[in-house]
Write a structure and sequence with these properties.
heterodimer; A: alpha+beta; Beta Polymerase, domain 2; eight-stranded antiparallel beta sheet; 39 helices; 57% helix; elongated; disordered N terminus; B: Alpha-Beta Plaits; four-stranded antiparallel beta sheet; two-stranded antiparallel ribbon; globular
Chain lengths: 897, 112
């Protein structure tokens, strides 16, 4: 006997009806039938099959008479089947509700029904309970409770169902708060398992955040709190805003259609929207895409908009329902304090005084003031306040006032709760009123194997990861903590990927967005330029670090020149790391950090010498102690400990404390003593010089020491003297020590001598250096035609650039000058700085073939940083003018040859 | 069948990957690794101070090929991964007993 012939004819007929019904629905679905209607039609189909099987079973078991089970037993669909929003291959949740005392007669019927349902091809989830048992089980298990919320009457004795409903309602009223907590917990456990963020790129239609389950959650909470699960009834009971119900309905319709399509296609239950399904559905639903946006990306944007709407509405609804009698709010005034009249800072959250709410909702600056305050106090904004703002957002003025901009930047500069607050601002729709380009990124999917989040989520996460670096012990954390204008970095992170989803390269679009945003936020010109650079070049560093040979110094140098300032270099480093880590878990690993940090360290060396931020004070202290120990040892054998002269040690301590980190780090203890010891005897007005040939580098090192009061502009006069002797300065270090002692080192190439210059030549240069300080005169430069000296143009000659950085050092303004090298250039730059009234404390001259990268740490004559914008502008333009005039003069003189 | 393991400079990965694809190599496994060989964990001159870096970041590429393709793949990796400086890495060739494609159960060269 085959399986089929063993089945009863009525089961076979039902099986056929189910198949026919499903294929009819499949056709109608393909023709565009609504998801809700399809679910209801399926429930009707299942109902009719169940009724048929129920009648047959009663007949066969002789229970269909007047004394039969029909009065004692009720068929109760629940769960999704009870709700009538079935998907084609959903389970059929059925409860056989019976009066107490008839268990023995119910058992054979239940067995028969279960078997028939299986044979028909439905997936039954069947239970047999009395009303009391059902309520007791529901009390113990929130999953059973939620399923029974959806219970409805199908067939059999109506009295039993009424009994159950009454008990169930009563129970819910008594246990409202506990029930809400229990179902929310069950749901959050499930969400954790299936994806906590809305923007997980391969979501589960039912279980991920914002999925169908969250719509059900709203129904359950509604039942527990307001005695009704249906959103329309909840609107009538003023528990749900009407526009939320409309939005929820729209989202539900979309999600149900997606799920129906997935079930029909798979021919079985399937709720996982993986990449292959996404591609297929985008085509099935007729998404065409547009330039820069694939059809699948357009489809998924719709999908994420639906789930985001669901997630937000349900979150708000649950927050309102959770608040029972408002004891906390009644007592809140006792534990909270007023702030500036408008706000109230409580122990757990910040609220807005009712009278100030109208003012707040009409002015973006006020909203940001609230967010800024929340960030400073490290407390969240109350949900009710968020809700009021959300509703007011469409009426906000479009223009950004300077006050709004100031508030926004103030918010961005505090890392404490920044990520969370930006996320709230985004959810409330405020962020896109400040940065309009953010609207486009909302729910924008990046269809590749790499990104795990949508563009808006990625951007917010990038800011969060950056602020998390504040607690990071590694190199990224170290650099992040030293960045002064963190707001600029955070803003760049918010903007860096907003150019995605257009036909053009996203970095190019991003640059435009950065420019527009800078203008909108009234940023100064240098700030706007920095922001544009960071957004435009946000891929530069990772591209170089991972794809180019960074052991090649030319690559590093070119990178340093392109970035231009130590501050931007630090920002780009953190931005790159934060961007990578916001792509997905595990993308930024220790290996990548190492590669990036290596490039950063080598590049910033060109721009800042040793940026003070880069050296640990501990290490420097250790170095100082080593020098002092060496000093003690040197003096030890000569004199008895008791008679040891106190003078030198004290003098050395003072000089070492003032010596720049770069000097201490690069000079061994013995060498430091060799350098400094002769200086002890130096008198004011005297100059000490020495020169030494270094065979390994074929350069001559000249050292010059004097008190800075010897003549104004010590550095440029020395530079002039060297240029006047035709020497090429490859590198120079100026160190200003204690007591106004200046100690300079120059590393020069002597083009007149291929090998070691004779001692007379070195003496001649030393004399010239000395004379430059004691008998200053304007230097003249020799112009010598040298055979074989051709420009090795491995680097394109860049136009002269001057970058000023006031953020990297606490005590100094850093000026970076990039120019093409010529004899006398250093003198020209140094003199220009001198004429601008600047005092150069540390300088690092780097010559790389014919490209010069010079770094100067300067102060004004009073020893302070230069912060005045106008004065900085003058310094910059004087440098440009002086270098241009110098190059012009040189070109002319060359022509006259 | 042989497994070819190449430890290469990390920034040469793109080049090596593209070159292997052009040779019709369909799959490879990439691991970010650290190590040192003769490059001896380069001691860096950092403004005159020597910084000993124990391990250098490298990328390991693993490719499984039929015996007939071994030389071709080695040549390709050599060509694409070379800078001529110390630290270009090494290629190891390892004999392989069996390969199984999990989806279909195919074995041997069929499964490569």
């Amino acid at each position: 006997m085959t399986t089929a012939s063993r089945m009863r004819t009525r089961v076979l007929a039902a099986k056929e009806r189910l198949a026919e019904g499903r294929s009819l629905l499949r056709r109608r679905h393909a023709e565009g039938m609504s998801g809700v209607a399809a679910g209801a039609a399926l429930a009707d189909l299942f109902d009719s099959i169940l009724l048929e099987l129920f009648e047959a079973a009663l007949d066969d078991l002789g229970e269909n008479g007047p004394d039969g089970l029909k009065r004692e037993l009720t068929l109760v669909p629940h769960g999704g089947y009870g709700r009538r929003d079935l998907a084609p291959y959903s389970d059929v949740d059925l409860m056989l509700l019976h009066a107490p005392g008839v268990e023995e007669r119910v058992a054979p019927l239940a067995q028969r029904m279960l078997q028939d349902l299986f044979d028909v091809g439905l997936a039954p989830g069947q239970s047999v309970r009395t009303p009391l048992q059902a309520c007791q089980l529901a009390r113990k298990d929130p999953i059973i409770w939620t399923s029974l919320v959806e219970a409805r009457y199908l067939a059999g004795g109506a009295v039993g169902f009424a009994d159950f409903s009454h008990r169930f309602q009563k129970q819910a009223q008594r246990r409202t708060a506990r029930l809400i907590a229990a179902v929310e917990k069950a749901r959050s456990d499930e969400r954790l398992q299936y994806g906590e963020t809305v923007y997980l790129l391969q979501p589960n239609v039912k279980r991920s955040r914002g999925g169908l389950r969250d719509i059900q959650l709203l129904r359950w909470i509604g039942f527990a709190r307001y005695g009704a699960a249906d959103p329309a009834t909840l609107v009538a009971r003023a528990a749900l805003p009407a526009e939320d119900e409309t939005a929820l309905g729209r989202a539900q319709e979309f999600l149900l259609r997606v799920r129906n399509e997935m079930h029909f296609h798979a021919g079985k239950s399937n709720d996982n929207l993986d990449r292959a399904e996404q591609l297929r559905l985008a085509e099935a639903f007729g998404f065409a895409g547009r330039p820069g946006l694939l059809p699948v990306e357009e489809f998924m944007r719709e999908y994420f908009r639906a789930t985001e709407a669901v997630s937000q509405i349900v979150k708000r609804f649950a927050a309102n329902a959770r608040r029972g009698p408002r004891w906390g709010e009644l007592f809140a005034p006792l534990f909270s304090h007023q702030y500036e009249g408008d706000f109230r800072i409580g122990p757990a959250q910040i609220t807005v005084n009712p009278r100030s709410l109208a003012k707040l909702c009409g002015d973006p600056a006020e909203i940001l003031r609230l967010a800024d305050l929340a960030n400073l106090c490290d407390k969240p904004i109350a949900r009710s306040t968020c809700e009021a703002i959300r509703q007011a957002v469409p009426d906000l003025p479009d223009e950004i006032t300077p006050e709004t901009s100031r508030r926004f930047i103030s918010l961005l500069s505090q890392p404490a709760r920044l990520g969370e607050l930006l996320r709230s601002l985004h959810e409330m729709g405020v962020l896109e009123r400040i940065i309009p380009a953010f609207a486009h990124a909302r729910c924008l999917l990046q269809f590749n194997e790499y990104h795990k989040y949508t563009v808006d989520e990625h951007s917010l996460r990038a800011v969060e990861h950056a602020t998390d670096f504040g607690r990071d012990a590694g190199p990224v954390g170290f650099v992040y903590r030293h960045i002064k204008r963190k707001w600029l970095l955070h803003l760049a992170l918010l903007l860096h990927d907003l150019g995605k989803g257009y036909a053009e390269d996203h970095s190019e679009v991003g640059q435009r967005i950065a420019r527009e945003t800078a203008e909108r936020l009234h940023l100064s010109k240098p700030e706007a330029e920095s922001l544009e650079f960071l957004v435009h070049k946000h891929l530069l560093m990772s591209h170089l670090a991972f794809r180019r040979d960074t052991s090649d110094d030319q690559v590093v140098l070119r990178f340093a020149i392109e970035v231009g300032s130590p501050e931007l270099m630090q920002m780009l480093f953190v931005l790159t790391a934060a961007d990578l880590s916001a792509v997905g878990p595990g993308v930024l690993n220790a290996w990548k950090i190492e590669v990036l940090a290596d490039l950063h360290r080598r590049a910033i060396e060109h721009l800042a010498g040793d940026a003070p931020a880069m050296n640990s004070e501990e290490f420097l202290q250790q170095r100082r102690e080593e020098v002092l120990a060496a000093l003690d040892q040197r003096q030890g054998p000569e004199r008895d400990g008791a008679q040891r002269e106190a003078g030198p040690r004290e003098w050395f301590e003072r000089q070492l404390a003032a010596a720049p980190p770069s000097y201490l780090l690069t000079t061994g203890p013995e060498a430091v003593i060799e350098d400094l010891d002769p200086l002890r005897a130096l008198e004011h007005g005297e100059v000490l010089t020495s020169g030494r040939y270094q065979s390994e580098t074929k350069t001559v090192e000249y050292k010059v020491a004097a008190y800075e009061d010897i003549v104004p502009g010590v550095f440029h006069k020395l530079a002039g003297a060297l240029a006047g002797r035709g020497l090429q300065v490859l590198s120079a270090e100026i160190h200003t020590l204690a007591d106004g002692l200046v100690f300079d080192r120059f590393y020069v190439l002597d083009p007149d001598f291929a090998a070691e210059p004779p001692p007379e030549r070195i003496d001649e240069v030393c004399l010239a250096l000395s004379a430059a300080l004691t008998k200053p005169a304007k230097p003249t430069f020799r112009r010598v035609w040298r055979a074989g000296q051709q420009r090795q143009a491995t680097l394109p000659l860049l136009p002269t650039r001057v970058r000023i950085d006031n953020s990297t050092s606490d005590r100094f303004t850093i000026i970076d000058v990039f120019a093409a090298d010529r004899t006398g250039l250093l003198y020209t730059i140094a003199r220009s700085l001198f004429r601008s009234g600047l005092s150069v404390a540390v300088a690092k001259i780097g010559t790389y073939l014919d490209q010069v990268v010079d770094v100067f740490y300067v102060t004004d004559q009073a020893g302070g940083k230069i912060v005045d914008e106008a004065q900085l502008g003058e310094i910059r333009s004087r440098l440009h003018d002086d270098i241009a005039a110098f190059e012009q003069a040189e070109t002319n003189s060359t022509r006259s040859w | 069948m042989k497994k070819i393991e190449a430890v290469i400079r990390h920034f040469k990965l793109e080049d090596v990957k593209n070159a292997l694809s052009e040779q019709g190599i369909q799959g490879m496994t990439i691991t970010e690794v650290r190590g040192f060989g003769r490059q001896k964990g380069h001691t860096e001159m950092y403004r005159g101070t020597e910084y000993a870096v124990d391990f250098v970041p490298k990328v390991k590429v693993e490719v499984v090929v039929a015996n007939g393709n071994v030389q071709k793949v080695i040549d390709t990796i050599m060509r694409a991964g070379q800078t001529g400086q110390i630290g270009d890495g090494k290629i190891f060739v390892i004999g392989l007993e069996e390969t199984v494609r999990i989806r279909t159960g195919e074995t041997g060269e069929e499964a490569i």
